[in-house]
Amino acid sequence: MQDSRIYLDNYTVLEKEWLNPTFYRLRLDASTIAAVARPGQFVNVRVTPTCDPLLRRPLSIFRVHRQSGWIELLVKLVGRGSRLLSEVQPQEQLNLLGPLGHGFDLETCNTALVVGGGIGIAPLVFLIEELIALQRSVMVFLGFRHQKEVCCIGILKNLPLHLEVATDDGSVGFSGLVTSVLENYLQTNSLSDSTCIFACGPTPMLKKIDSLARRFSLPWQFSLETFMACGIGACMGCAIPAANGADYKLVCKDGPVFSNGQVKIDG
Q1: Residue 82 — φ and ψ, nearest 5°?
Q2: What phi, psi does 128 have (nearest 5°)?
Q3: Which among 10, 75, 100 has a CA at the least distance from the CA of 48?
Q4: 3, 36 Cβ separation under 8 angstroms
Q5: What are the tens digits of pLDDT across the range 110-138?
Q6: What beta strand segments (E) does 19-56 contain?
Q7: Can you give the pLDDT at residue 221?
Q8: What is the distance between the alpha carbons of residues 267 and 224, in angstroms, rounded to a whole number?
Q9: DSSP helix/strand/coil, 235
Q10: What is the CA radius of gyration of the chain?
């Protein structure tokens, strides 16, 4: 059972670090959120002290240190909101609403295959660290477009896991799609009954993973990326078709993490 407490407050920025020209990391003193957050959940961030821009930005909780009371957010520089947020400095405050959403279920998985594409790595490091704390076996597959986007490798190399990296142009690791690396692993390794796939990334990547999961009879949990305005299910702006084709699910409230048979993976 996931904790249902949600907080709305101002939190102090402790650190800001550019990991490469595209991604930056924010660490915030947010003990209330850190105490109850679960992997896969997110926070809705007001990127400036004013109402311009009006809408908050949903950001996955990247890492958590409960004892020290901090959380981290991983942000990709893509538009006005993320650019404004990149201007924040340590000791300034950000207004956060969270933790929000339904996160990953870690209970039934003893061997985890964790797959991330680009900014899809954002909810996965917290997940990986929690899986390792639960003494699960973890294999990580990360895909990026090119070397300048590769990030978080230093964090992961310090953890007891198996790591594979792919880039579209072959500048780091395997040359090609990360799903090709995953497919090769599935074809050449014996899989236990408690093996499952966790993933976040672009829809074509998730569609391919869904196909592989069906082929190898593996359960999956996907963290979906979509536009979310309110973050609490009120605006209905993040509705996606349910697997039955007749209903809809709200990514912000019913997800962002979904499992086999809950939603359609199109793309």
Answers
A1: -70, -30
A2: -60, -45
A3: 10
A4: yes
A5: 999 999 999 999 999 999 999 999 999 99
A6: 23-29, 42-46
A7: 97
A8: 12
A9: coil
A10: 18
- At 1 the pLDDT is 55
Report whether 94 contacts 161 (CB < 8 A). no
Token pair of 213, please?
A: 């999961």
| Distance in angstroms (rounded) separating the CA atoms of residues 88 and 65 | 21
Geometric angle at alpha carbon 50, from 46 and 51, rounded to 5°: 75
pLDDT (tens digit per residue) in 161-175: 999 999 999 999 999
∠ at Cα 91 (6, 225), nearest 5°?
A: 45
CA distance 60 to 120: 9
Domains of the chain by range and CATH?
A: 7-100 (2.40.30.10), 111-223 (3.40.50.80), 226-267 (2.10.240.10)
The residue written with tokens 């102090």 in the block is 12
Walk across the sheet containing 195-200 and list its strands.
174-175, 162-167, 137-144, 111-117, 195-200, 220-223, 257-259
Low-confidence ranges of the chain (pLDDT < 70): 1-3, 267
Q: Please name the residue that has the structure tokens 């973050």.
A: 231
The residue among 74, 64, 203, 41 whose CA lies nearest residue 151 is 74
Query: Which segments within 145-193 are labelled E, that is strand?
Result: 162-167, 174-175
Query: What sign for the dihedral angle of Cα 135, 252, 203, 55?
Result: negative
Say if CB 58 and CB 42 are below 8 A apart.
yes
pTM for this model (two decimals): 0.94
The residue to which tokens 């896991």 are assigned: 161
